[in-house]
Amino acid sequence: MWLEFPYNSIVTAPHRLYTDLAYLWPAFSPPEDYAEDAGHWREALRQKLGPGRHSVLELGSGGGHTLSHLAGEFQVTAVDLSPQMLALSRDLNPGIPHHQGDMRTVRLGQAFDAVAIHDAVCYLLTEQDLRDTLATARAHLKPGGVLLLTPDFIQESFTGPRVLHWVCDHATPPFTVIEYCFDPDPADTIIESIFFFILHGKDGPEVVEDRHTSGLFPSTTWLRLMEEAGFDGELIRLPGFEGGYGGHLFTGVLR
């Protein structure tokens, strides 16, 4: 059966998920979904740094869902570009320092034992973006500090187009998400994701389209740029998630 919506019910704007639709985030991508990746971070941090309540800076922390699994045993600090996402993270992680900033340029004037970036690293579209972000990480790390990067995709394992859909039935009211992810030009370093949110308002269903552009780089590029930035890097391959997401953890130790 086809669902028919009035033409004017489709609203298009980029990155609404991090602005006026940020209230959907806790149901769209619940904190419990981050437990596995947080566990991989924890294991890597313990392996590289040993025991102790080490200081960890997350760049592009979003709603703070990964940090919520680490705050009990590490001193964590959050940085994100979106004030709406920072507000969600403050509610979830009270007492944790939060700062608004771009991961390519932010400077807190502090040094940490580790800098970590979850899937927000996917919004880096060029090698220069990667270089700038690695410079940010270096500027915030103590000698021998650890860098963790968790991109959703790397070039050699990405296949598309792909479609995912799910119902967020634990939200009030429930809503439906359809994601279409594809590579418009395999010759460049960019892929596109189009999200359709079917929201239920007082006047009936509304379809909101939200487009996200992500970077797609081979593992050799990640490791080369980490090396250039002063990190001894490696790629740890992990079990991925539905839709081909995840399965890649780049770790680096600052020389």
- The largest beta-sheet arranges its strands as 4-3-2-5-6-12-11
Which blocks of ≥5 consecutive residues have pLDDT under 50? Answer: 1-13
The number of helical segments is 5
Rg, Å, rounded: 19 Å
Principal-axis shape: globular
Classify the secondary structure makeup into a structural class.
alpha/beta
Oligomer kind: single chain
- The average pLDDT value, as a whole number, equals 92
Helix content: 10-25%
Order of helices and strands: EHHEEHEEHEEEEEHEE
Give the total of beta strands.
12
End-to-end gap:
59 Å
Major sheet characteristics: 7 strands, mixed
- Beta-strand portion reads 25-35%
Provide a brief overview of the structure.
The chain is built from five helices and twelve strands. The protein has 255 residues and is of the alpha/beta class.
Main attributes?
single chain, 7-stranded mixed β-sheet, 255 residues, 20% helix, alpha/beta, 5-stranded mixed β-sheet, disordered N terminus, 12 strands
Q: Would you kindly provide a written description of the structure presented here, covering whatever features stand out?
A:
The protein has 255 residues and is of the alpha/beta class. It has helices spanning 25-28, 35-49, 83-92, 127-139, 219-228; strands at 10-12, 55-59, 75-80, 98-100, 112-117, 141-149, 162-168, 175-182, 190-201, 204-215, 231-237, 248-254. It has a 7-stranded mixed beta sheet with strand order 4-3-2-5-6-12-11, sandwiched between helices. The protein has a 5-stranded mixed beta sheet with strand order 1-10-9-8-7, with no helix packed on it. The protein starts with 9 loop residues before the first strand and ends with a strand.
